[in-house]
Amino acid sequence: MVERRKHKRFKVQGSAFVVLGAPPWPHSTKVGQIIDMSMHGLAFSYIADEGQSNSSFELGIFLADNSFHLRQIPFETISDVKTNEIPLSSITMRRRGVQFGELTHNQISQLEYFIRNHTTISKVKV
Description:
mainly beta, Thrombin, subunit H
């Protein structure tokens, strides 16, 4: 299969999460665990909830130990697919891929720091 991505993907080490929502923070519409990322976007898994809004236009990235927070990243959803259902449960997992919008110099710097210190190179399949 031919790699379609233009930017190298990195697998996140440890527990890193994304929160989708519009300001004022910390109100959110979705929280998910980051699977992989690049300087231009990321993929995360989350529990599907029919009652949650899809109208978010900013996201935040944070580590479970609160040692890193990056907020108000503009994004566009590129894909959102069902990945699996949990047996004997009504819970459905989904995977969403997002592309970052225009970032500030500070956001770029913080993303570079995050990738350098909290990821490993990933061989992500398309």
